[in-house]
């Protein structure tokens, strides 16, 4: 069985495993106060080309809830696409911290600056505004849940609205490696850092065993973030494991190479799906592909390949997700391509 369910089905890149083994018996301070975390934070600051504050957490849901809880008052909520990860795939974790997710209708996973402005103005112009959750943050992901990307112009417009209405802009970068390396991406890492208040560089889905690097881009914004990390149970005692992994990922451009591999493998699958006459639910150039396939073909594919159900299209067709990743091989992709061709003989 070859799994295309997600981009974290494998363990970690061999370079990370090697460094973990080499440093296994080193003694370091705990809780992220070690030189590995410090050096990794310095590397990220250099890559962002600006003063930033970096913190390391273990996983995406933990990161999303901790960042949101750290910046919002109890009566404030976060605007997000209705397909956003915090709204759909985190089991109410954000609401569990006391902050409502205020969803806006997304288009292929994205929301617009106009939607955000209209939502905030509607709240502020309501005579009973204090009886409702106050929008104070905007959450988006790059790439989105549909693998689509915000353009530089779109992100800039969203950030301008956030600044005009004193909202925080938080960018989920769990799959940032695949977004940055996509052929149609037009946002650099320094530009991303200049157009949001906080974002994170995802490691779990891009070659690390686990780990996300949270980057606060505004002075003072993350000054007390470590208190919230501890409060949320996210302070890893052996914190050096996080810093060490990011040091290795970001060395010699490995992180971006791994993202590029996922995108390249996805392009090959897209071409195969199109050749077979399977339309795509959403067009993108990142590592998630959403073909619409006859159910009888899916049944045959499921005998040898793993994938994720997305939605029913009609009585005989379903949209599914195939996800490539940092470790996807040419041989794995070719096996699926051959199976698709065999089914469509």
Explain the overall architecture.
By secondary structure, the protein is of the alpha/beta class. The chain is built from 14 helices and 13 strands. A seven-stranded mixed beta sheet has the order 2-8-7-6-5-3-4, sandwiched between helices. Strand 12 and strand 13 form a beta hairpin. Helix 1 packs across helix 11, helix 2 crosses helix 11 and helix 6 runs parallel beside helix 7. The two termini are 22 Å apart.
Our measurement of the CA-to-CA distance between the termini, rounded to an integer number of angstroms, reads: 22 Å
* Proportion of residues in helical segments: 40-55%
Order of strands side by side in the largest beta sheet?
2-8-7-6-5-3-4
Number of helices: 14
Low-confidence stretches: none
Give me a quick take on this structure.
This protein has 345 residues and is of the alpha/beta class.
Supply the key terms.
345 residues, alpha/beta, 7-stranded mixed β-sheet, 14 helices, 13 strands, 40% helix
Give the SSE map.
Elements lengths: L1 E2 L10 H9 L12 H14 L4 E5 L2 H12 L4 E6 L3 H4 L4 H4 L4 E4 L8 H12 L9 E8 L10 H13 L3 E5 L3 H5 L8 H6 L3 E5 L9 E5 L8 H7 L8 H10 L4 H22 L12 E2 L2 E3 H7 L3 E2 L1 E5 L4 E7 L6 H14 L2
Parallel strand pairs: 1-11, 3-4, 3-5, 5-6, 6-7
Antiparallel strand pairs: 2-8, 7-8, 9-13, 10-13, 12-13
